[in-house]
Amino acid sequence: MNWETVIGLEVHVQLATKTKIFSAASTAFGAAPNTQACEIDLAMPGTLPVVNKQAIDYAVMFGLAIDAEIGKTSVFERKNYFYPDLPKGYQTTQLEKPVVGPGIVEIQLDNGDTKSIRIHHAHLEEDAGKSLHEGNFRSGVSGIDLNRAGTPLIEIVSEPDMRNAEDAVAFAKKLHSIVTSLGICDGEMSQGSMRFDVNISVRPQGETELGTRTETKNLNSFKFMEDAIHLEVARQIDLLEDGGEIIQETRLYNGETKVARSMRSKEEANDYRYFPCPDLLPVVISDEHVEKLRKNLPELPDARQQRFMDEYDLSQYDASVLSADASMASYFEQAAKQSGSAKLTANWVAGELSARLNAETISLEQSPVTAEQLAGLIIRIADNTISGKMAKQVFEGIWNGEGDADQIIEKRGLKQVSDSGALGAMVDEVLANNQAMVDDYMNTDPDKRKKKLGGFMGQIMKASKGQANPQQVSQILAQKLAKML
Amino acid sequence: MHNFTITELIDGLKKRVFSSEEITQHFLARIKNLDSEFNSVITLTEDQALESAKLADQLLADGSASELCGVPVLHKDIFCTQGVRTSCGSKMLDNFVPPYDATVIENFRNNGAVMLGKTNMDEFAMGSSNETSFYGPVKNPWSTDSVPGGSSGGSAAAIAARLAPGATATDTGGSIRQPAALCGITGLKPTYGRVSRWGMIAFASSLDQGGPMARTAEDCALLLNCMASYDDKDSTCIDRPVPNYSANLGDSLKGLRIGIPKEYFSEGLNSGTEQAVRDSLAEYEKLGAELVDISLPNTELSVPAYYVIAPAEASANLSRFDGVRYGHRCEDPKDLEDLYRRTRAEGFGDEVQRRILIGTYCLSAGYYDAYYGKAQQVRQLIRQDFTQAFEKVDLIMGPTCPSPAFKFGAKGNDPVAMYLEDIYTISTNLAGLPGMSLPCGMVDNKPVGLQIIGNYFDEARMLNAAHQFQQVTDWHQLAPAGIES
After folding, report:
1. Shortest distance, CA B99 to any CA of chain A (angstroms)
2. What are the angstrom distances between the C-alpha of B52 and each of A38, B14, B73?
3. Cβ distance of A47 and B198 shorter than 8 Å
4. Which of A273, B130, B171, B423 fits B189 for a cystine, CB–CB 3.0-4.6 Å?
5. Which tens digit of pLDDT belongs to each residue from B54-76?
6. Considering only residues 89 to 118 of chain B, which have any Cβ-Cβ distance to chain A shorter than 8 Å?
7. A144 lies within 8 A of chain B by CB
8. Distances (CA, A) of B315 to A83, A89, A92, B422
9. Rounded to two decimals, what is the model's pTM?
10. Which residues pair with residue A219 across a beta bridge?
């Protein structure tokens, strides 16, 4: 039987506010445990929440970015459950009246197709703290770190509009791109700034009713999400094909061991007893305020992609790669403007630089090669001072802190020979020393002679110690060989 | 000296008839000598009191003293006091020392008032008799086999016994007015949002309101001048200038329209209480006021609505008491579930557990609409009753509670009978309106309270009406037997 997969996502996005959603404690990542939890975060008796207006603005900005209805009056509710890292015994969140209503996110698939994913709503809520269980803390004891408790989140809930892991990853990446472009989230997945809950069901191809779904919670990388989806889809199909039944449940996936397990079934689910939080007034957002935020909205990834195609004449693919991440986009633009060669800059940013950053798992902000330095390198490629091959060595030098492109070219004597007289003499010499190759070339069927050119090129480049300008050499070589015929 | 009102004490302090240290010593000695009989004070803060009295005396000498400078007061043990145990009448918080002051406490401190100690109360303010306190019941100074009312029974009894000239209290369903009535003193519950709830341990957040207790309306005005403030740490606090509540106490009551709700004189009202209230209303007519018959048709729905809303909010508010971060923790929990179960079973008394269970039930899936949803609709109807009434009248008057102080244990086995104690007071909390109680007669040698309900933020008019009554009557000057000297 052919099966169709149906996927919906719930995405938790940590908002990049300086302070927490209901207190003045800092949200900075990585502080010593419990040093960023004030009496409100600790839920001391008599303390009261005051909502962080910046968090509301950020949520509204997200709503505007996905063309959603903005909740003019949104209401915080209490979601009641006991857990040691939830100090109040309830999470303050939104249910009936979220700040962001239905919207649309367009995703682009690898084959160039686009697809619309509907957003059911997005709501504001507070994050919980962290429980550090045995092994991560002290033997026989669990620890609680409340630094994260009260960090503002928006939870973005999609409709079940995705049909495979590729859709889901594209959607997740698009959300990442939107929230980082808006500057409302730092996008640091490894620090938990974005976390995904994936609802998955399968059904026979052509069936319109949805199958029973499971929810795999708390995936914090695109790769883990992709793997978890493949695993869960396969599990469900296997189960159904063996005549089994899917149980509605919450599952946990371990990205390291690549194993998923059931956490709790629907029957074991909490009754959260939601009700409006009496300590917080409904949040009323005026039309004027929404318009002000709309006017000041930063450039969004789709608009930027189009602009890169128009302004820099980039291919759709290059434009989409470079526009997805706000910091990469600005890096590219700075380097492209300084170098004057947008296409070449695009190749270097999306290619060599990104690969290197990925390999060393560091962010663009931490890149040892600045946009200015990359532009300096590209200028020297464009004016034929160095070849592409030399450029890689120069890049390596800049990365290692040896200086700017020009300093490294100078120091390493990497200048490319582009003097046609010198190059002509070099070509003559190689032809004279390799009579057998020349004869072979002459005796080859004219249609297949092109393939023989590589041999000459190799010899010439070797003779020039790699400094000959390859384009010029190949032109001169072609001319000289033609004359000899 | 202990028969002086706050007004008289302020006058004596200013004229240097006595020092703050002297009167502080005097009241501390009274509490130490006499309170073993009444049990109105949980924690005596003798050292701090004498220290602040000395400081107050310096300020008084400098002439830079604020209105309440040097005046000794007691605070209900529901207000968090930095460095001083704040128990809320519960075993759960028997060891809790807050690292912060409630805004109300801060206001008193800034005003130079001297804190004598913290008063006894029903556990988490849940009770109408002060029998639910972990620290034992408070006894009514008028009749020590009778209850003082609750939940602010400690504050009321202490004032009646002349252990302090004034005290803070809180009112969620009548917890200022009912004990004020039963102990023959004057107490005011302000409009919801007038007094900050920051640092006031929450029972039912949408109903809780702090207010003053003293022997006279004039003193309550002085205390409210200090207590009322806008506080950006409480989102439900209303940003509105605080008038000088002492300014218009002398205004004539000519033409004042007083509404008499027929529902407040129905069956269940003690005949002696009714007579005392009717006599007082006749007194108001003599002062020039006009009595207008009105109806508050939804009064009988107020108790059931309240006993859904208040426990629902309480069930969430009290979830934070889990033994994890502060307060009582059971011995040697074997796992998390055991920690929660035993900590809460040991830390909370029966009435608190009863209300948590009621509230949890009312909010549960499948019951929410029938209970919580319905109760919110009733709340709306009750609010409308008052809005319509205040189109015709300036103030509403009636009994504070159905009968004078009852004997200990009289309603102990019948929670509903206890809940009906608040039938006349609860609806003002549901509507968010201000209400007060002042002594207006005696039945069986026990005080009777007259309740005054005002429109939103009309505390000054209420205090004026009460003060004028106290100019022509002496019920507020009566003291329990053995207290006079």
Report:
1. 8
2. 28, 16, 12
3. yes
4. B171
5. 999 999 999 888 999 999 999 99
6. 93, 96, 98-100, 102
7. yes
8. 15, 10, 15, 20
9. 0.90
10. A196
